[in-house]
Amino acid sequence: MPRLELVECSLRAGQQALLLSRLRSRHAIPVARALAGCGFAALDVFGGSTFEASLLFLGEDPFERLRAIREAAPKSTLVASLGGQALTGHRQVSDDVVDAFIRVAADAGIDRFRIHDPLNDVRNVRRAIEAARAVGRQVEAAIVYADSPHHDPDRVVALAEELTGLGADAICIHDPLGLLGIARIGDVVQRIVDATSLPLALSLSTQTGQAEFAVYAAAVAGASRLDVALAPLAGGASVPAAEAVIAALRGTELDTGLNLETVSGASTELEHCLVPYAAVVDVPALRTDSAALRGLLPPAAMGHALAELRERNQIDRLDDVETEARRVRAELGHPPMITPIIEIVATQAVYNVCDGDRYATVSQEVKDYCLGLYGAPPFPIDDAVRRLVNGREEPITLRPADLLEPALPALHRELTREGVKNPDDATLVNYALFPSATLAVVRGEVVAERLGDEPEPTAAPAAAPDDDDEAASADAEAVAQPPPADVRELTVEVDGQSYSVRVIGAGLGGGGGASAAAQAPVVREGTVVAPMQGQILKVRVKVGDSVELGSVVAILEAMKMQNDITATRAGTISTVYVTDGDVVRPRDPIVQID
């Protein structure tokens, strides 16, 4: 029996699961250097939500970070984890963006692409697999394991055979909630190995406490690779600890051949690097939780729902939301619980519970999901729910990306208009996935969250004025004091973690600053208000427009979901209170209809 290969995941999956994807490059690079000498079969270093977090919260270009890791570990096999046609984003992108992204990632150092689709719709991984093969890289096609009314290994094996036919070099079983026990995983692994004759990798969450048992059963049944993480970023919602697996299998037919002392040295390096992150650790994700075994979402996966419940002062409804999430998932065809589907289900469950009327509020993501714009769900969507969500509009039957025109030329023009001269392919694909965050990084506008080892920012000391200057300054202050800035206390939800922030100045709920706050618009009959806190993505109407009941007047982004704000009556728009990009609170006026 061949030795079990270990894929080390601290720099991507581990920190994504337990550290809110916040690991800075200055800490990741020395850890990568230490890992390079450990003998792991591969290092998982790129993709998932760490890509967005690098841009949005760390002010780092993820491709530059990848190049630095490649330099630190020049001989290691580097792995990227991609969500099919959506790559590292939340929405599917055009084929030319997929091709460019994979080409840039390969040039930056990726040797193996692990590619999955959140719905296991094989149509959505085909282009990414072809693009990876075109640049001469390995392809590990992943199947997301999802519990359903009837455990059906035949479906999993059929998926593996179909992915093999697309040119995959290996198959991966990804169990994001830790649902696979010994009996099920042993049977599935053996059948996939027999059907495909390809290496089989395992990525198993330890959330429910079953993974360590399942790992051994799967390895005995013929699995070839296993995701592990150094102990400081292992366990809980992450994957098994590398040190534990190495020690447990030592002296058996599955002995990994790795030196435990060398790996422990890398683990110590990581431990030292994590000291400044004490305030960032995702505490619910650290512990074992049996919620998934009961058909519920574990707390680590309920971050978006928890943030919305806190904002509505209804945190006591969490048990109801967990139960409702199970019902919503069943109505949506039992999709796998993985990003972005898990956020879509949890958010809709919050709406259904808190509104008191199921599907009275529906996010744009749920509408698109029911129209087939994410792909085909594993099981049919409940007909009554589909009618509630989409009315008479019929779902598409083709591959969702077939509706998308080539995007790179238009993206190039947009970036040029934004003042970015001669953008390279890396900037183009960053912008395609996360436009606002990319522009902020390019312009140097991102202020990274302060870590525990970083000093508080201090103002530069002012030069001592002489008598004449001091008198002149006092006179100037007496003549004109600046008006007090508009200040709002907001709760911002980031990767499921809530932060209290103070926003000072214009650009809030209409951008009127202090004077606007003093003359806040009165909510009256015909005023359309924000249903929740969020950011206005697009105002769809202007003063003088005629609207019908139910017409979309604006699009609000909240908890990474897009929500239509609709007219509450027919009439004419007399006032528009917000502009694109404004942050609004619950019941802030959006437009007035007379």
Q: How would you describe this structure in keywords?
A:
TIM Barrel; four-stranded antiparallel β-sheet; 594 residues; globular; eight-stranded parallel barrel; Cyclin A, domain 1; alpha/beta; OB fold (Dihydrolipoamide Acetyltransferase, E2P); 38% helix; 18 strands
What does this structure look like?
By secondary structure, this protein is an alpha/beta fold. The longest helix has 15 residues, at 182-196. The termini are far apart. The chain has helices at 10-18, 25-36, 49-58, 62-72, 95-108, 126-134, 153-165, 182-196, 211-221, 242-249, 260-273, 303-311, 318-331, 341-355, 364-370, 383-390, 408-417, 425-433, 435-442, 467-479, 513-518; strands spanning 5-8, 42-47, 78-82, 112-115, 138-144, 170-175, 200-204, 225-228, 487-494, 497-504, 527-529, 534-539, 546-547, 552-558, 561-566, 571-576, 583-584, 589-593. It contains 21 helices and 18 strands. β5 (138-144), α7 (153-165) and β6 form a beta-alpha-beta unit. It folds into three domains: 5-285, Aldolase class I (TIM Barrel); 302-402, Cyclin A, domain 1 (Orthogonal Bundle), CATH 1.10.472; 487-593, RNA polymerase II/Efflux pump adaptor protein, barrel-sandwich hybrid domain (OB fold (Dihydrolipoamide Acetyltransferase, E2P), Beta Barrel). The strands form four sheets. It has an eight-stranded parallel barrel with strand order 1-2-3-4-5-6-7-8, surrounded by seven helices. A four-stranded antiparallel β-sheet has the order 11-18-16-13, with no helix packed on it. A four-stranded antiparallel β-sheet has the order 15-14-12-17.
